[in-house]
């Protein structure tokens, strides 16, 4: 069986992100794919820089830790398409967290996905790419996109109850932002961001 963690340990793991990274972190939204690891040098162009609040995450509860306060750049540094983010310490040099970044895609299914199935059907899958996080009624927790065709999306986990036709499904990047295509001096805002520590 896979290892499992208590809620207390899941919370401690999530809280360790802010504890280790330190207060007043700096978030940068960048173009291109994320570097291989957090220790790898920056890549792409820095589009937006956000000086986060002194305390930028709420205390974790049930392994979930939402952002706290305003995450915003009033005037973007450059123009381009957001593709990844890096969260640095207050000095802006040590990367403690990175992931994909972009605008969420919301689509309605065009057919029923039967119980224990993992392929969702749409009239079109424009904007959906492999790796996005998936949520919606019937979609299993922690599901991600593993394959995409013109009209179907394959999930990493099967749906126990199935997914109804016309169900609203959200495909989200690790860090959703209000506009993926950023213009110079544009306001860039992170409205929602939550760290989730899985049970195993």
Fill in the keyword field for this structure.
200 residues, mainly beta, 2 domains, five-stranded mixed β-sheet, three-stranded antiparallel β-sheet, 17 strands, globular
What can you see in these coordinates?
The protein has 200 residues and is mainly beta. It folds into 2 domains: 7-102 and 175-196, no CATH class; 105-172. The protein is 8% helix and 36% strand. It is built from 1 helix and 17 strands. It has one helix spanning 7-21; strands at 26-30, 46-51, 64-66, 71-73, 80-81, 84-88, 95-102, 105-108, 117-121, 133-135, 145-148, 152-159, 168-172, 175-176, 181-182, 188-190, 194-196. The strands form 6 sheets. A 5-stranded mixed sheet has the order 2-1-6-7-14. It has a 3-stranded antiparallel sheet with strand order 8-13-10, with no helix packed on it. A hairpin with a 3-residue loop joins strand 11 (145-148) and strand 12. The longest helix has 15 residues, at 7-21. It is globular, with a radius of gyration of 18 Å. The model has no long low-confidence stretch (mean pLDDT 94).
Q: Helical stretch count?
A: 1
What is the 3D form? globular
Instruction: Work out the number of β strands.
Output: 17
Structural classification: mainly beta
- Give the fraction of residues assigned to helices: under 10%
Which strand order spans the largest sheet, edge to edge or round the barrel? Answer: 2-1-6-7-14
- Round the mean pLDDT to the nearest integer and report it: 94
Order of helices and strands: HEEEEEEEEEEEEEEEEE
- Unreliable stretches: none
Assembly type: single chain
How much of the polypeptide forms β-strand, as a percent range?
A: 35-45%
